[in-house]
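no rush on this but wanted to send it before i forget. what follows is a protein written twice so to speak, once as letters and once as structure tokens for the fold. mainly i need to know what kind of three dimensional shape the backbone takes. thanks a lot i owe you, the record is right below.
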Amino acid sequence: MSSDSQNEKDRRSTADRRTVTDRRNEDERRADTDRRNLLAGLGGKQVAPPHPRELLRTDPMGTPGMPRSAPSSSLHYIHPKGQYPMGDRVPLSPAVKSGNLVYVSGIPGYDERGQLAVGDFAAQMRQVMDNITGILHAAGTGWSHVMKVNVLLTRREDVAEMNRLYAEYFPSGKYPARTTAIVYSLPHQDFLLEIECVAVVS
């Protein structure tokens, strides 16, 4: 390689490095100018960025998120009258209301006397849906304000009957989001299903 070619290559390399350096310096000057302008607009006060916990709090519109720890007094435990008191048998509440949301436990097909229609899926299904209807009403809401439903069945052959009976409780045809699962077993050997849901109080 001739000395002229080498010199030309060196000059180009030097020019490239200067261009990169100039660009970096220009970017830094712009960033510094932006910072000064921001501080001037804030009266010269520096404002700390929000703590990550603040970003997880429920927003002013009540959007469900990660709310701050709420005192127990903000929770309302729903125990509807006229239903079998499941809380006397197991440590749970049929539903818990917090703000405008109602969380309904997995509800089995016990009637008001604590009896179960053993082996009769249709009877258990209707009883479960009626039980949840009473719970929702006691919380100040109803099926038309349910957002999400989880259905647990122990027998796959009951899916069609479950869908038929389930649809009767939504005459408008507007159904909530739903998950249906076939499970190996439920807490009681005679439970053929349980249903849980989340509803909004309007």
Q: What stands out?
A: The beta strands are 75-78, 95-98, 101-107, 146-153, 177-182, 193-200. Helices lie at 3-41, 52-55, 121-138, 159-167. Confidence is low (pLDDT under 50) at residues 52-72. Residues 71-200 form a domain with the 60s Ribosomal Protein L30; Chain: A; fold (CATH 3.30.1330.40).
